[in-house]
Every structure is written in C-alpha cells, then in structure tokens.
C-alpha cells in the first residue's frame, strides 16, 4: 500500500503489532521463503530434467532430497513448487485485497445505491462455493495459470469487501472522523488517518488466510489433475504423480505434503485468530 | 395463558421465515444463471468445430461426417449468433433440459440422479461424524479453557486445518489400509468403503467446529446468566443442559453454513481420491473429458446442494434463536 510510507508519525501504519504466535508463523514463512529462493542459487538442477537411469533415488550429495519417478531432482522441484505456490498466493491476495479494500471503503462510506450494487455483486460471487467457481473457470481454459489466478482472486476479494465495508460503516460515524471532516480534511487524509489504522490488522489477517486458501485451492486442483499441467512442479501435482510410488519412495511422497503443510500452517499462525 | 402462548407459537416461529426463504431462492437462481453462463462461455471457447467435436463424442470418431455435424449444429443452435444461442441455452436450463452426456450418451439428469445419491450419502455421513467428534470435544474443552484437553484439541485442530482434505485422506489410507489393513483404500459398494472418505471429510469439519464450539462454550461459561444459574442452585449438569447447550449450539450451527463450502470443495477432491462415484468425481471427469453438458449438470447440482444445505442451517438457526424471528 502506498499510504503506508507517508511521512506523518503513525506507528500502526507500518505493521500491526504481532502476537507471539504470529511471530512464529512469520518466522516459519520466512524460512520457507529463504529455502525456496535460495536453493536455485547453490543447487543448479533443472526441475524438469529427467534422468531415467536415476529414478526414485535416496537422498545423496548430488541430489540432497532424492529423485522422483522420472529421475528429476526433488530439491529443485520442491523449491520450484513452493515458489510457484507462494507467487500465486501473493499475486492473488494483492489482486483481491486492493479492490476489496477500495470497494469496501466506498460502499461503507457512501452507502445508498452504490453500496447495494457492490453488495449484490459480492453476493453473486459468493453464491457458488469458491472452488466450484474456480473449477468452472479452469474448465474454460484448462492448464492455464491465469484462469486459476482470476478464479482464486474472484473468490478472495469478497471477504475483504465485506469486512472492510462493515468496519467502515461504523468508523465513518465516529466522532473523531466527524471532527476531522469538519476541520476540512479531504477523504484521502481521513482514510489514512482514521480508517487505515483500524482496518490494517483485519486486512493482514484476511490476507494470511486468503494466501493459505489460494495455495490449498491450487494444490487441490493439481491433485485432481485439472489444474496446472505436468511437467510443472506444483505441490498437488507432485503428490498425485508420486502417489503410485509411495511404497518404494515414501520420502519422495512426504516432501510435497510436508511443504504444503508448513506453508499453510505458517500462514494460519500468521493470521493469528482462531476461526471465528 | 398457556393455551394462548401455545396457539401463538407457530405463527411466531414462522415470522421472518418468508424473507429468509426468498433470499435463498434468489441465491439458487443466481447459481443456475452463473453455472449456465460459464458453461455457455465454455462451449464458445472450445477449440475446433464444436459440432464435429460433439458428433464425434456421440457417434464415435469413425461415424462422423458433415451430415452428422450439421445435425448437431442445428440441434444445439451452434450456427446462431451468440446472443440467441445464449438465451436458448438459458431457456433449456430453465426447463431443466440438461441434454445428454457427450461421453456416455445418457441423459445428464439420469446420471446426476444416480451420483447425487452417492454424494449425499457421503456428505450426510461426514457431517454426522463431524458432529459426533467436533462439538462434544469443543464443549468439553470450553468448560475448562487452557486445560489439557483444550490445549491438545487446539493443537490437533491447527494441524488438521493446515492439511488439505486430500492429504488427510492420503494419510488415513496409509494408516488404515496400508499399515493396518483394516479398511479398503478405495472403491464403493460395502459400508467399509465409505468409512475412510467420510472420516476424511469429517476430521476436517470437526477441526473447525470443535474450536467454534469451544469458543462459544468458553463465552457462555463466563457469562453472567451462566454464573447466575449456578448461584440459584443448579448443578453443573443442569445448568449446562438448560443454559449452556442451546446458547453454545447457535454459533456451531451457524458456522456449519460456512463449513458447507468446505464440504462441497472437499467432496470434489475426496471423491476423486477414493474413487467414489459421486458428483464431485463426475465433475472432475467431465472437465478432463470436456463433456460440457455434464460439467453444467454437476456444477449446477453441487451449487444447488450448497444452497439447500444452507437453507437447512438457516431454518435450524431460526428455530434455535428466537431473537432472529422478530427481525
């Protein structure tokens, strides 16, 4: 958000204070980020390169996490899959948060017909369960990253919209905002000074939950083989590919599951609260 | 006096019900329109000549000639401009004419009817199982917040919430089918086949509902009216039954509505994993085979099932919480 970097002395604007649990989540996530982006620097294996004489090898110095059923390097593949998942999550969370926040503030502030129109658009997107909407969009453009991205963002923005709208409605009538408005401050200042500090912690929580559900949705589609196509290294796809070999290579099968688990676990911790 | 309140009871329970049902009916219409529109877009964006494609699907690749393709084109109005075809498509949907599956040639409705039974069976079993595991655990944990049971169930719930349903299913298969050999890993027919898929869904649902129940119970047990029920001399059991249960039940039931999103999504994945012949499995297969009428039918049924389940939750909340009825 651009507003964050403005010069006025407001400590809440940078990041809301994190609880201990959230710090643990942030730390885990940082470790995972470091793993995903540092691996290619010192381990230059191509995640798609097949070596059919070296299938399902145990971890060794050359391949620290072993190889899969086509002899592909699992360290490189897992790192690539985490990068893909996190990249997609980040992209769709930002795409969902910006319009969600914007429309939510507008609807909550202005009210009236604008509020009703935006509200019914959100209800329409919510009529179908999220994954179903994503599935239908993916059916239109199979194996396409962008269809997946549009579908997930379309599902995610509603949550921001609803929370921000409800909160804004209350805040707009507050005496401190009224006072600032009477002093002649513009809407942008009012938003920065009065709305954003109140909304930020909730938006952060929603962003962490949203990222987790984006990652889960992509993996679920990969797992039922309607998501991204092989040979892409994707967590759900890796699981379903390695499933037939769970007996010979349980460690290979465990890797995408573990990676997905840590990803979602750290994001859930970062989100903080229990589910309502 | 009692007779008066008794005779008035039904009408009070019905007040506010109309708006609630109308809202859900509107949602059902919205679901149908969205599914119809998206699948229509799907037919228009398929590569190649749609008429040949469908004809090949129906009559086999060797039997397709231009006459067959033309017949299909005329039947499905593929030669008409998009707007007319779109309206025709929606009109068919309105009449519940879902067409025939391009793969099996059977009417979609037939197949759906068959699959819906299997999916509903699985869903009902999963919900019941989750209600047996989750809320009782949560209620017990909520009576002693920060106790051993509370900490333990919180840890278990956070681990389960971070695992997608297919990973939970995989782990269950590894444990019960491969390592212990107690239950079949996949298939359909006997009761034993349905245990693992239902348990997979139920565990994920219970992970959330146990925490919701725990929070609700913790709130109730700290409330003034709960303290008063103790003060006036009710024992722990009676005050729980009379004052705790109904108040704590409301958030749990209301949250079930949110969980149904998860249930529908889980059905897609879990049915595929366990080769369960239900709607979710059929949807995934239809998408892989690009069987448009089946995609439309399965998505429609799942969307409507979601709305129907939510309506049931609304009705239960309405019955549980008299405060809603006045509004």
Automatic annotation (TrEMBL), chain A:
List the record's Gene Ontology CC terms alphabetically.
Answer: plasma membrane
Q: How does it sit in the membrane?
A: Multi-pass membrane protein
- Which cellular compartments is it found in? Cell membrane
Residue ranges constituting the ABC transmembrane type-1 domain according to the UniProt record: 82-271
Which molecular function terms from Gene Ontology are attached? Answer: dipeptide transmembrane transporter activity
Keywords from the UniProt entry? Cell membrane, Membrane, Transmembrane, Transmembrane helix, Transport
Q: Give one Pfam family, short name only.
A: BPD_transp_1
> Quick one: signal sequence residues?
none
| Transmembrane region(s) | 21-42, 84-109, 121-140, 146-164, 203-229, 249-271
Superkingdom, taxonomy of origin: Bacteria
Give the family per the record: Belongs to the binding-protein-dependent transport system permease family.
Could you tell me what this protein is called? Answer: Peptide/nickel transport system permease protein
Q: Tell me the classification of the organism that encodes this protein.
A: Bacteria, Pseudomonadati, Pseudomonadota, Gammaproteobacteria, Oceanospirillales
TrEMBL record, chain B:
Instruction: Tell whether Nucleus is among the UniProt keywords.
Output: no
Record keywords: Cell membrane, Membrane, Transmembrane, Transmembrane helix, Transport
One GO CC annotation: plasma membrane
Q: Which GO terms fall under molecular function for this chain's record?
A: dipeptide transmembrane transporter activity
Looking up InterPro entries in the UniProt record yields: MetI-like, MetI-like_sf
Domain ABC transmembrane type-1 residue range list: 116-317
Q: Which domain of life is it from?
A: Bacteria
Q: Where in the cell is it found?
A: Cell membrane
Q: Does the keyword Magnesium apply?
A: no
Coarse class of the primary localization is: membrane
Could you list the residue ranges that cross the membrane? 21-42, 120-141, 162-185, 191-208, 252-279, 299-320
Its membrane topology: Multi-pass membrane protein
Which family is this protein grouped under?
A: Belongs to the binding-protein-dependent transport system permease family. OppBC subfamily.
What protein does this entry describe?
Peptide/nickel transport system permease protein
């Amino acid at each position: 958000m651009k507003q964050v970097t403005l010069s006025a002395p407001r400590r809440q604007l940078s990041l809301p204070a994190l609880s201990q649990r959230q710090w643990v989540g942030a730390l885990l996530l940082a470790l995972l980020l470091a793993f995903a982006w540092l691996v290619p620097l010192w381990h230059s294996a191509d995640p798609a390169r097949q070596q059919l004489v070296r299938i399902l090898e145990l971890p060794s110095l050359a391949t620290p996490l072993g190889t899969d059923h086509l002899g592909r390097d699992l360290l490189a593949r897992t790192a690539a899959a985490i990068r893909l998942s996190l990249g997609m999550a980040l992209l769709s969370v930002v795409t969902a948060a910006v319009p969600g926040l914007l429309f939510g503030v507008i609807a909550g502030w202005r009210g009236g017909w604008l509020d009703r129109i935006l509200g019914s658009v959100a209800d329409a997107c919510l009529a179908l369960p999220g994954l179903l909407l994503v599935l239908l969009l993916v059916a239109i453009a199979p194996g396409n990253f962008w269809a997946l991205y549009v579908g997930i963002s379309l599902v995610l923005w509603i949550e921001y919209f609803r929370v921000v709208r409800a909160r804004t409605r209350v805040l707009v009538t507050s005496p401190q905002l009224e006072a600032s408005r009477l002093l002649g401050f513009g809407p942008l200042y009012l938003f920065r000074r009065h709305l954003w500090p109140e909304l930020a912690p909730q938006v952060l929580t929603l962003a962490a939950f949203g990222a987790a559900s984006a990652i889960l949705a992509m993996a679920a589609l990969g797992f039922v083989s309607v998501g991204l196509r092989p040979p892409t290294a994707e967590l759900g796809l890796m699981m379903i590919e390695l499933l037939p070999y769970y007996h010979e290579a349980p460690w290979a099968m465990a890797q995408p599951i573990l990676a997905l688990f840590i990803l979602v676990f750290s994001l859930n911790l970062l989100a903080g609260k229990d589910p309502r | 006096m009692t007779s008066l309140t008794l005779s008035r009871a039904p009408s009070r329970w019905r007040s506010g019900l109309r708006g609630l049902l109308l809202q859900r009916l509107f949602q059902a219409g919205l679901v149908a329109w969205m599914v119809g529109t998206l699948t229509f877009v799907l037919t228009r964006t398929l590569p190649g000549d749609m008429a040949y494609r469908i004809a090949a699907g129906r009559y086999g690749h060797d039997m397709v000639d231009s006459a067959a393709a033309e017949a299909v084109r005329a039947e499905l109005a593929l030669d008409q401009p998009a707007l007319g075809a779109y309206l025709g498509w929606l009109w068919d949907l309105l009449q519940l004419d879902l067409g025939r599956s391009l793969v099996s040639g059977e009417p979609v409705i037939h197949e759906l009817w068959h699959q819906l039974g299997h999916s509903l069976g699985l869903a009902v079993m999963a919900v019941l199982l989750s209600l047996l595991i989750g809320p009782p655990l949560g209620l017990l944990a909520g009576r002693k917040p920060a106790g051993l049971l509370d900490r333990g169930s919180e840890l278990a719930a956070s681990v389960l919430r971070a695992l997608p349903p297919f990973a939970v299913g995989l782990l269950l298969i590894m444990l019960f089918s491969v390592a212990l050999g107690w239950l079949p890993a996949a298939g359909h027919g006997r009761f034993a086949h349905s245990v693992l898929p239902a348990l997979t869904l139920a565990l994920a649902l219970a992970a959330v509902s146990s925490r919701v129940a725990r929070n609700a119970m913790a709130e109730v047990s700290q409330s003034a009216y709960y303290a008063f029920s103790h003060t006036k001399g009710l024992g722990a059991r009676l005050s729980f039954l009379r004052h705790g249960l109904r108040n704590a039940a409301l958030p749990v039931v209301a949250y079930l509505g949110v969980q149904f999103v998860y249930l529908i999504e889980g059905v897609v994945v879990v049915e595929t994993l366990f080769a369960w012949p239900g709607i979710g499995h059929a949807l995934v297969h239809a998408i892989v085979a690009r069987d448009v009428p089946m995609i439309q039918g399965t998505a429609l049924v799942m969307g409507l099932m979601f709305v129907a389940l939510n309506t049931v939750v609304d009705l239960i909340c309405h019955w549980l919480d008299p405060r809603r009825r006045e509004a």
